[in-house]
Every structure is written in C-alpha cells, then in structure tokens.
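Project standup — Tuesday

K.O.: blocked on the structure for the chain from last sprint. Re-posting the sequence here as requested.
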Amino acid sequence: MMAPPFTGVAAEPSGEEPNAEDPSAGAPVSSPSAPEASGSGVDFGVSDAPTTDVEVVCAAQSAASELRQVSLAFLFDVSGSMGSNNRMRFDTKWVPVVAATEAFFSEGDAAALSASLTFFPRPDSATRCTADAYLVPDVSETALPSPLFSEAIRGLQYSFGSNNWRMSTPTLPAYSGLAASLASAPSDALRAIVMVTDGVPEQCQGANDIQLVADAVRNSGIQTFVIGVANPPGDEVPNNLPNLDLVAQAGGTERAFIIATGNPAQTQAEFKAVIDDIRGISLACNMQIPLPPVGSVFVPEQVNVIYGSGGASDKRLSYDPECAVPDAWRYDDAANPSSIILCRESCERAQREVTASLKVEFGCERQGVPR
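H.V.: unblocked you, prediction finished:
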C-alpha cells in the first residue's frame, strides 16, 4: 500500500501586517523600525508546561514564534455495510477497524493532537440526508488521549445481527455539515478531516454523485484524508472504493488510503499504520518566521534553525526543500517564504520531547544539504 508522501503543512495566507505577537502573520522582508519582539513559550503539543522561547542568534535579540496545534475531525461511516448481518464483514471489517480506531484515540502516542468524532449516517432517517444533522459531533473536540471516543463507539451498541445498524451512506451532507461546523468555530489549531468509509454515497436522492462530494471537499478548503475500508475477499458485494481518490485529491492529500480486510490482525495493523501516517503528515510543525532584528533584512539564504532538548547539545538542522534527509527543515515556499516547516523526522522528535526548543539564526550562512 502506497501512502501519500509527507508534504508538511502549508502556511495560511494573511492580509494583515505581520508582527511578532501574531503567529498567523507572514514574515516581513525587512523591519528597520520593528520593536523588540517579546518571547512566548513554544508549544509542541505534549505538555502544558512552557518551553524555551524561540531565540534569534547571530543578532542579540529574541523573537516569538510558535508551532501550531492540530485537530483531526473524524467522519466515521457506521452504515450497515460495515458489518450488520454479514458475519464475514462484521468479523473482518467492523471489529478490527473499531479496535484500531479506539486504540488511536486512547494511546499516549496521540498526545500531540486533539480530535472530534462524527458518525454518519445519523439514526433518524428523516434528517440523515441533511447537512444540519451533522453540525454537532458525537464527540466534540477533545485533547488526546481520551476514553470518550471508545465510549461513543460502544454506545452505538452494534453487534452482529442487531437492529441498531444504520442504513445508507450520506457522505455529502455529512461532510458538508462537519465542514460548516469547523468553519463556524474558529480555532488557532490547524484542522484536517479524516473520512473513514467503505463506499461511495447512496440513498440520499440528488447527493449520490461522488463528484459532488469532491466538489464540497475542494470548496471547504480543509485538508481531507480518506480511509477506504474494502470488503473481504469473496464477499458477494463488489468493492465500491476507487472513486474515493477523487475526494482525497480534492482534499489535497493525493489519494485515498485503502485498507484490505479478510485477516482481522492485518486489517487492524494496516489501519493503525494509516492513522500514524496521517498523524505524521498533519502534525503542525510549522511556525511563522520571526521578525529579524531591528535594522536588519530578512535574507532567506541566511537563516538557520537550531534544535535543542533539555541538557543535550544543540543541533543545527539542515535546510532541505525536499525533506529527503533526517534532521531537516524547509520553507513553505522557497521563492516567497513566510513559514519554517520542520521535516517529518524533526517534527516527530519535537512532538515527543517536552523540553524541545528552537533557535532561529538570521544573517548566518545557511547549513544546507549538498546536492
């Protein structure tokens, strides 16, 4: 299974004048009269305790900049085709996927994130095809790890052959309602949607075209990951997953992750691996470039990023626009940079280490990767 490549997190555009106290603002080209920036703790999402300020060296002034939190909004397909009265699907799809999902929400590895959970379809057949039915999640945004997600899944009271299973796959209204709820609740966190489903839309008249879903995803502007859960081998119902790539592409994530079923242990392992990949891709290891010292000029080729942790020696990270080497960083846009982005290995290390700190050098020869 090929996973989408790590692309980092793009900086969000801002039409306001940049300043050191506003981490959503872009970096200025120069700041001959900028006041000295006040320091603020860098929050790597793993502790409430403040960490060391981002420092500027090669100049005797400090600057404030923060890595941003990430919130994953899960849109989880609980339609009857995930198990219902088909013993093979229940044992090889529903059971291992639920086990892996519950583990993700409850394990300490997810401590850098927050998440919400929205089931679709809704239990009321009269409203399940309306976007308004999905404005309120089943589990609101919550810091991970948390037992609330497992409690919500178990609250469905799904078992083989029970009458609680919900029919239809109202993908378009479910996505539209979730996206609208995220848009109406502004947050400093970077948000992404993770859609888990075993098929394409059905049983909502006028909303069963997968292209309509892709259009809604593209128009939302929200990074969207898609996890497609296949039917087990030998199932009499053919898989209905290929077009999920359209949704993933519209969400900026290139292609859907397709999870094979048939072997429960393998399905659970694959699902966990996919969630780990998504977490690695979406972690907000970006920060706005701090204001350069008073009287100096920001020169992209004269910036270095130095990583420190506790009593360990500081390490200068390598600039690599392709993020092809360990211990590296890159700009969001090499031609017109506004953010510094830690590459995956550097990002994951920073997320694990509570005492992590960063220093930003201005006016120093940049350490890059030989080509």
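K.O.: great, moving the ticket to review. The two ends are 30 Å apart (CA to CA). Helices lie at 87-106, 148-154, 171-183, 210-220, 244-250, 264-282, 344-352.
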